[in-house]
């Protein structure tokens, strides 16, 4: 693996590595991060976590407003499971009060597109291109020159530390994320409740990096490690952190760290735009770190077609691009 040195800074010596991360390399580490029951439990303020026992996945059961039925969704932002071929059996075993299910698939899941079309009876379609990093490649070959210049600037003003006890950073993390919500007017599930943000710091597989100016935290970045992949989860910064370009220091240190610990891939997630839109700033930022992309699919299943059509007719809703249509 290739540590990334920039501006003659020894980027590995500055990072406090967590030796316990090596434990995540065992085969059962699929149950860390987004696949772990504690991650699903972090959403229990807005839904009921349901275990899919054959596939080893979790979904979130929600009341349909104004109806006696429920529907379900995969955990945000990605649905992960151990055995995709067992999902059909899990669907058959679900309570009959669940009307529909929607998920966005893990781009590193062990499935083929044809498998998804066979499993989900309503829709299985490419949703977004997720930017990824192949850690076998030399960072200088793929990190954009723009990003390399900003790494140099950032590392002159901030240092990066990793935490072996993320729970102790809860108060700082809540303050930073609230600032992010206000700055970008984030709404819906991506806003996360305070309790969800705290709970997610205790999910096995988490890795947290802090950008420091002297003794002050100006940015934090959260990752989840599952098998050989590190998934970028969330990040938030103070106004000072934005000015100091702390995100560039944090990403660079994370790449060094995950490369040194023997992981094969980093998943950076998608941009903010719709499929095919390359104009938003987040897309440009993530592309500047990546070696390529992998597709995440949007999948939907209807457990009772007659009830689904009946609910749409009752509410005067026509089937369209949005699924489930009654939530449009």
Average pLDDT, to the nearest integer? 90
Integer count of domains: 2
Number of helices: 11
At the first level of CATH, the class of the largest domain is Alpha Beta
Helicity, as a percent range:
25-40%
* CATH architecture tag of the largest domain: 3-Layer(aba) Sandwich
Instruction: Work out the number of β strands.
Output: 11
- Quick one: overall form? globular
The CATH superfamily of the largest domain bears the name Gcn5-related N-acetyltransferase (GNAT)
Measured on Cα atoms, how large is the radius of gyration? 20 Å
Q: How would a crystallographer describe the biggest sheet?
A: 11 strands, mixed
Query: Could you give the order of the helices and strands?
Result: HEEEHEHEHHEHHEEEHHEHEH
Distance, first to last CA: 46 Å
Strand content: 25-35%
| Poorly predicted runs | 1-29
* CATH topological fold name of the largest domain: Aminopeptidase
Strand order of the largest sheet: 1-2-3-4-11-5-10-9-8-7-6
**Structural class by helix and strand composition:** alpha+beta
């Amino acid at each position: 693996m290739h540590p990334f040195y920039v501006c003659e800074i020894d980027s590995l010596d500055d990072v406090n590595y967590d030796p316990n991360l090596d434990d995540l390399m065992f085969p059962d580490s699929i149950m860390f991060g987004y696949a772990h029951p504690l991650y699903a439990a972090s959403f229990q303020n807005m839904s009921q976590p349901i275990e899919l026992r054959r596939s080893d996945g979790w979904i979130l059961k929600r009341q349909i407003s104004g109806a006696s039925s429920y529907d379900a969704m995969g955990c945000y932002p990605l649905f992960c499971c151990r055995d995709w071929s067992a999902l059909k059996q899990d669907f058959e075993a679900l309570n009959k009060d669940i009307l529909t299910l929607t998920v966005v698939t893990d781009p590193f899941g062990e499935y083929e597109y044809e498998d998804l079309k066979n499993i989900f009876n309503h829709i299985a379609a490419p949703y977004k291109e997720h930017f990824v990093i192949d850690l076998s490649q030399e960072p200088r070959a793929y990190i954009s020159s723009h990003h390399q210049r900003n790494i140099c600037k950032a590392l002159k003003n901030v240092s990066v530390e990793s935490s072996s006890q993320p729970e102790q950073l809860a108060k700082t993390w809540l303050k930073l994320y609230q600032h992010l919500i206000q700055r970008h007017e984030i709404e819906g599930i991506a806003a996360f409740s305070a309790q969800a943000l705290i709970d997610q710091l205790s999910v096995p597989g988490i890795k947290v990096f802090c950008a420091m100016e002297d003794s002050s935290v100006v940015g934090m970045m959260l990752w989840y490690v599952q098998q050989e992949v590190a998934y970028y989860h969330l990040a938030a910064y103070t106004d000072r952190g934005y000015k100091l370009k702390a995100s560039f220091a944090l990403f660079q240190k994370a790449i060094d760290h995950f490369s040194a610990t023997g992981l094969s891939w980093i998943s950076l997630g998608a941009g903010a735009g719709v499929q095919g839109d390359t104009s938003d700033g987040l897309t440009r930022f993530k592309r500047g770190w990546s070696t390529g992309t992998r597709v995440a699919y949007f999948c939907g299943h209807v457990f009772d077609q007659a009830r689904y059509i009946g609910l749409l007719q009752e509410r005067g809703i026509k089937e369209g691009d949005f699924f489930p249509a009654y939530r449009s």
